[in-house]
Amino acid sequence: MHVYVVGVAVAVGVILSIIITLATYLVCRQFGPKPDPSKECSYNDFLNRVQSDVQEPVSSALKKAPPRRIVAKNCRLKPSDSTVGPGPPPVSPVVLNSNYSFTIPKATSPGFQGDSFTLEKPQPAIGALSPTSKTPSMMARLDPTQLDPSAHMYKENHGIRKLSMDSGVTGPCLGIINFSLKYNPEMGLLTVRLIQARDLQPREFSGTADPYCKITVVPHATKMLQSKVHRKTLCPEFKEEFVFEIPEPDIHRQTARIQLFDFDQFSRDECIGTAVLPLTNVDLTEKVEVWKEIKAVYVAHRQQSEEAPELGDIMFSLSYLPSAERLTVVILKTRNLRAVKLLEDKKTSDPYVKVSIFCATKRLKKKKTSTKHNTVHPVFNEALVFGVMMESLRHLSLEFQVIHENRIGQNEILGRVVLGPDSQGEELAHWNDMISSSKPVARWHRLIT
To answer: What are the C-alpha distances in Å from 171 to residues 69, 168, 290?
Structure first.
């Protein structure tokens, strides 16, 4: 019962609101303000003027505009009427609106029709060919007499690649190597990118090689970086980058040196040759790409070493820990040692290795490995540790002696190797690697007398 009463009340309320709204609208319409007929007329006149202006010709509209003259510059016309005089042509005003206007010179020519105009640009003569002109057609015949070899479009661009074949090292050419240099003066970083090598000299017995490179920048950089080994190829593709930290004031006093080696698993790696590039006159403001000849080096030293007897090779690793001031030498193995005794009709020896630390000619410390009996290819794998101060490291040198132990009589030295800051070749490179790296660096070295 209550729900029914509520529904009737809501319906009566809606009907009353509708009636009140209609009554209000009728009262406002009857007694409200009337529209102004003059305003309606002016609006209708405005619409009629707009429609008549659209239909009116453009020429009459332009003539009705008030003249405001701004002479147009660089407006070239094609004169074809003899009546056009040499003086400045008359101008007719063209007004876009009340704020902007410009003027157009009048001239009677076939290009004009009524008050409209067309502009024509001078066309190049057919047959005249220049670096800035275009041929009228791809099928048109070119006149060779019109070609200018000195034009800019026919010049070669030498800024991307710089070809240089003078390596600055005497000796026969053993191939060519391609690399690039890029220097960042803000960070003081020189990036050497190995690209490729061509026409390397093969080994006599195999006809191929296993090349790799060792890169250094002297005299500033103390480290020597090494590339990957490329198997059985005379034209390796390296595509590796090596970064050296060199201050900007010293960059043009440096020399980039790239050594190519032939990797040998069973003997000492052979140096194929060296490419040298002094940076004195090299513009490093942008990336420079270079081709250099690979030349043989140390020819006299190599001839002397070939005449000397073979004493064998020794392999050891070096590492120096500055925080603990500890020098660690690991004697790995030796090979092809000279035999000094007979054992059942077989020549052999009883070798061990003695390591000594020298300061000038004074011996400071020495240690030795255990003795390996009856072998010319001993394997030691023994570590010898020395306490060396960081300040004195630059004045020291290491001597490795391979000694045959005699049970009766005096021991016999089979060969030795000396490493230090005053060494050369492989020995100096191994020493520099120890200084610049905290990890052990192992290499083969040839024994000398």
So the answer is: 82, 10, 20
Residues pairing with 113 in the sheet: 116
Query: CA dihedral defined by 385, 386, 388, 390, rounded to 10 degrees?
Result: -10
Q: What is the mean pLDDT of residues 395-424?
A: 89
Cα within 13 Å of Cα(292), Cβ side: 26
Token pair belonging to 340 = 């000094």
What are the φ/ψ torsions at residue 78 (nearest 5 degrees)? -100, 100
The dihedral sign for the CA sequence 51, 53, 58, 59: positive
Task: Give the three-class secondary structure for 53.
Answer: helix
- Name the band, by pLDDT with cuts 50, 70 and 90, for residue 356: very high
Using alpha carbons, list the distances in angstroms from residue 82 to 65, 77, 85, 112, 113: 31, 14, 8, 15, 17
Using alpha carbons, select from 305, 366, 306, 369 the residue that is nearest to residue 334. Answer: 369
Q: How many residues does the chain have?
A: 449
**Surface-to-core class of residue 435, CB atoms within 10 Å of its CB (0-12 exposed, 13-18 middle, 19+ buried):** middle
Q: For residues 352 and 415, what is the distance between their CA atoms, to the nearest angstrom?
A: 11
Q: How far apart are CA 257 and CA 215, in angstroms?
A: 6
Segment 324-338 mean pLDDT: 92
The answer to whether the CB of 210 falls within 8 A of the CB of 229 is yes
* DSSP 8-state assignment for residue 56: S
Q: Report the distance separating Cα 302 and Cα 300, nearest Å.
A: 5
Query: Pick from 161, 172, 177, 162: which is nearest to 275 by CA?
Result: 177
Q: Which of 48-62, 274-288, 294-308 has the highest mean pLDDT?
A: 274-288
Query: How crowded is residue 183: how many other Cβ atoms within 10 Å of its Cβ?
Result: 22
User: What distance in Å separates the CA atoms of residue 233 and residue 124, rounded to the nearest whole number?
Assistant: 57
Side-chain-side CA neighbours of 297 within 13 Å: the count stands at 19
How many C-beta neighbours within 10 Å does residue 440 have? 16
- Classify burial at 383, counting beta carbons within 10 Å of its beta carbon; exposed 0-12, middle 13-18, buried 19 or more: middle
